[in-house]
Design goal:
The structure is a homodimer of 569-residue chains.
Chain A: H1 21-28, E1 32-36, E2 39-42, H2 44-63, E3 67-68, E4 74-76, H3 77-83, H4 85-88, E5 95-97, E6 103-106, H5 111-121, E7 130-139, E8 154-164, H6 167-187, E9 192-196, E10 207-213, E11 219-224, E12 230-232, E13 254-257, H7 264-271, E14 279-286, E15 290-296, H8 303-310, E16 315-317, H9 320-327, E17 343-346, H10 348-351, E18 356-359, E19 365-370, E20 380-381, E21 400-415, H11 417-422, E22 425-427, E23 433-435, E24 437-444, H12 445-455, E25 457-458, E26 461-462, E27 473-477, H13 483-498, E28 503-505, H14 512-522, E29 526-530, H15 532-537, E30 539-544, E31 550-554, H16 555-565
Parallel strand pairs in A: 3-7, 15-17, 17-20, 27-28, 27-29
Antiparallel strand pairs in A: 1-2, 4-6, 5-6, 7-8, 8-24, 9-10, 10-21, 11-12, 11-21, 13-19, 14-15, 14-16, 18-19, 21-24, 22-23, 25-26, 29-30, 30-31
Helix pairs in contact in A: 1-12, 2-6, 2-12
GO cellular component, one term (chains A, B): cytosol
Protein name (chains A, B): Proline--tRNA ligase
EC number (chains A, B): 6.1.1.15
């Protein structure tokens, strides 16, 4: 397309409201404009990128046997009442009434509708499996929408739902989607990792998040430098702890005065020992009880793991008053020895300590030579700690590395959660009625566009991977008023488009510097400059946005050269 | 795709809730399911049709220089207050509040957002024209959603907005869209007509509706059998009336007693004359006044034309009490002679009558030998009547024909209505600020799918035009358990898809009759049956859905034959 016929509203200044790079560059490069808080208009460049991402998503879903459909955005409250989610969803659910005063919501997700469709149409095992998906707007009334497309209130998602006869079928569907997602993000030209993630309070189910690696990512990931293990920090595990004190004999338990020493670091320093020799005792309050969680003094409690271990719905650190009431001791001096009426959950590393230090459940006092099983017996021993970079990979023992990531997709084994409550059953080979086994699989389309920018940019602007770039190349005549230059640029532009290279002809009557700046900001993978050299020597300059590599190529070979370079960008 | 991996929920019964053919067949053929009143889920077959229509729309918009973008569905009240439409729109506008109690609506149309985007980015004549469009869900809270996709509350539309410097530019954009729309509906394989339509109270602006011709259509159209003139009945005109009584001398006005004779027909019969010799005097009440509208006794008043002639906002037939109060006469005896304090609007045909009959403004009394200009002077003489089939075309004089149509698109010259109120201005060559001149152009995507069915079906099901069919062909092995048949069917199915013929392999273990019925209901343009003849003689049966023509073709030539037939369907 010709730049003079396009809306190219680039900005020179960094907009004040934009906190993250993708938001800044999407605004500056003329891709989006804010219509309301967390609600954006996608201008033509953005729409081209979104269409490319959606096309890749469609092809990979279809390749796995996915059938595209389209479900409503506005949904009646009845079906959300039936699933039980109408009252569970808080203020994040946009609710409205129609002219007859009936309740509706704007869908944040489509489990209800799809499960009811399948309930109505699938009766027999012969009709299973089914993989059904759609791509549409989703709504979430965030308290504080921010980070541009990262946390909007209106956003585009692909969601696929799988319907199988049993867990084995679900496993096959899940693997198909794992493969499809891997293909999608690879084809989008992104550096990413599928990571094991926590499946929340439902428990038991498997889930992976697909993370685009970027320093600005809100999620921390641990991944193995050798094998394919990767997990987000809430889920990451490591090899079982070895005993730290082999051959050392347990000594007698003693009380010691430790006035004012509360934290594991303070206590360790006081006794002149390493912090890992201290048993950190943290009190938590769940929806049902107060519990004590024990980890080594150099570790942190992983609250997600603890929550899942307890099977609780909510979990929060106990406040000073709760600690005092539950233990009769001020916080800082609580320990597992002699603790009454409180369940104790210990990390396995705590069990491997010999002659450790712990709170004495008495003000300004600690116990030394504490030994698990002799001095106290935990109610549960489970991995409840945060794993850190440098620890061994649970699969292969190599060192775990840390990275930050942006979640762009998630695949999830739902099981029979929705089919049971909504009555989506089928008759098996023996005529027995069973609930359909479901999975759900989401990709944030608008978020993927933003994540691609977080990962691919420099100080001059966006660096699009060629597969999702709005255009592949921009052809810039240095002097559009020079008829000869313009004629050559025009011809090259048309030849490129005929050859399938999506190109823009920047025929605006602007200085070359302005066009170069715009080209860098918008992030065309290739910039082709047609100047005097083209007229005099038949040579154009082809510059690669990512590497900055610039080649002088003869006009007659330019199209071929571009087609050769493009797949490598 | 293989039928055993697809969701094909066909129904044998006509669903009770479906009043129109397209609604019935979309349900029966497994294309849609109702999620709520006027809100539908589009199953995979429907989504394929919608994607094809949208692709055709995109290509034709892009061909004219249209730039695709995407605007929000949920929009803040502020911008609707700014345009003045927040309070104008009645209960058809879905309104909601966010968690901070701010007002939003679900967009029925996007003039506000696009005009504000352009206001923000376009400053100079150099940036004009712009053609910007998007395809997205629209919302209208109909009092009584009905007719399936014909009048839903959530539906898909393409809307393009043009931005020009002046009326000449708008005329060019308008013509481009007229051409694009003609191409879209031609490529969709539909019989349609662009018809002149009324532009409503705004007045002066040009608008065309694109009507898919179908007996079930809600709109009546008059079109010329010779030239390209076509208009909906509210807008249709004809050649100026010739005098009916050439050379006849006006006679003296006389009063006649006509007890109980009120209608033009009764009066004509009473006097033994043709109804066209009676002046029909209809009293209407507008938002400002009571007026008398005069048409010949054999004609009907066109209330839209009358409304526009008067420049009124509302218009309704005066009730008995209003007639009595305004004229002092009971309805049925009102006439133009001696009528006081009431404006008279006469159709030109009335002016051409000599010695006509009209009400005397006295109970049970009419006047004979009434002659316009001698006995009364209308305040306005304008075309205010309904034109009927059989009258001459206003362009060429040939006979007008009548048809019924379904509106699937409308193009409209907005002018500066929105740019003025929202302040979307540009600086012209002389640095003078001017409002941008706009046009808007809509296509109902989901409605086009339904209209295609209204026009293309028979008692067995849908007959898709090949260009928008969900698949081009279905391959049916007569006995899927017969390995030889199945192998041949499978090979043919794969060869067809490789050749670009989108095909379904109906490998379900159902009787052939069931599959044939489904094939007819779903409406594949071609049905290819692989039976014993294929195994024994290498011959398959290719049947064309529309004509029923069935050919026996050798397996080796089948793919070629199908590719040859397809473009003709």
């Amino acid at each position: 397309m010709r730049a003079t016929q396009m809306l190219i509203p680039t900005l020179r200044e960094v907009p004040a409201e934009a906190e993250v790079v993708s938001h800044q560059l999407l605004l500056r490069a003329g891709f989006i404009r804010k219509t309301a808080s967390g609600i954006y208009t996608y201008l033509p460049f953005a729409q081209r990128v979104l269409k490319k991402i959606m096309q890749i998503v469609r092809e990979e879903m279809d390749r796995q046997g996915g059938q595209e459909m389209l479900m409503p955005i506005i949904q009646p409250a009845e079906i959300w009442l039936e699933s039980g989610r109408w009252h569970v969803y808080g203020p994040e659910l946009f609710r409205l009434k129609d002219r007859h005063n009936r309740d509706f919501c704007l869908a944040p997700t489509h489990e209800e509708v799809i499960t009811l469709v399948v309930r109505g149409e699938v009766k027999s095992y012969k009709q299973l499996p089914q993989l059904l998906y759609h791509i549409t707007n989703k709504y979430r009334d965030e308290r504080r929408p921010r980070f541009g497309l990262m946390r909007g209130r209106e956003f585009i998602m692909k969601d696929l739902y799988s319907f199988d006869r049993d867990e084995e079928g679900l496993e096959i569907s899940y693997r198909k989607m794992h493969e499809a997602y891997t293909n999608v993000f690879s084809r989008c030209g992104l550096q990413f990792r599928p990571v094991e993630a926590d499946s929340g309070a439902i428990g038991g189910s498997t889930t992976h998040e697909f993370m685009v690696l970027a320093e600005s990512g809100e999620a921390a990931i641990l991944y193995c430098s050798v094998c394919d293990y990767a997990a987000n920090v809430e889920k990451a595990t490591t090899l079982p702890a070895a005993g730290l004190d082999p051959g050392i004999q347990p000594l007698d338990l003693q009380e010691a005065s430790t006035p004012g020493k509360k934290s594991a670091e303070e206590v360790a320093a006081f006794f002149g020992i390493e912090p890992f020799h201290v048993i950190k005792t943290m009190l938590y309050k769940t929806d049902q009880e107060v519990v004590a969680a024990l980890v080594r003094g150099d570790r942190d409690v992983n609250e997600i793991k603890l929550l899942n271990t307890l099977g609780a719905l909510t979990l929060e650190l106990a406040d000073e008053a709760t600690v005092q009431q539950a233990t009769g001791t001020p916080a800082g001096y609580v320990g597992p020895v002699g603790l009454k009426n409180i369940r104790i959950v210990a990390d396995p590393e705590v069990m491997a300590l010999t002659n450790a230090v712990a709170g004495a459940n008495k003000r300004d006092t600690h116990l030394i030579n504490v030994n698990a099983n002799r001095d106290f017996k935990p109610d549960l021993v489970e991995d409840i700690r945060m794993v850190r970079a440098g620890e061994p990979c649970p699969k292969c023992g190599a060192q775990l590395q840390e990275a930050r990531g942006i979640e762009v997709g998630q695949i999830f084994k739902l099981g029979t959660k929705y089919s049971k409550v909504l009555g989506a059953n089928f008759l098996d080979e023996n005529g027995k009625e069973k609930p359909i086994v479901m999975g759900c699989y989401g990709i944030g389309v608008t978020r993927t566009m933003a994540a691609a920018i977080e990962q691919n940019h420099d100080q001059d602007g966006i660096i699009w991977p060629a597969s999702i770039a709005p255009y592949h190349a921009v052809v810039i005549p240095v002097s559009p008023k020079d008829e000869n230059q313009m004629k050559l640029a025009e011809t090259l532009y048309q030849e490129l488009n005929r050859a399938g290279v999506e190109s823009v002809l920047d025929d605006r009557l602007e200085r070359p510097g302005v066009k170069f700046k715009d080209a860098d900001l918008i992030g065309y993978p290739l910039r082709i400059v047609v100047g005097n050299k083209a007229v005099e020597e038949g040579v154009v300059e082809i510059r690669r946005r990512r590497s900055g590599q610039t080649d002088l190529i003869s006009l007659s070979e330019a199209v071929e050269k571009v087609r050769e370079i493009l797949p490598t960008l």
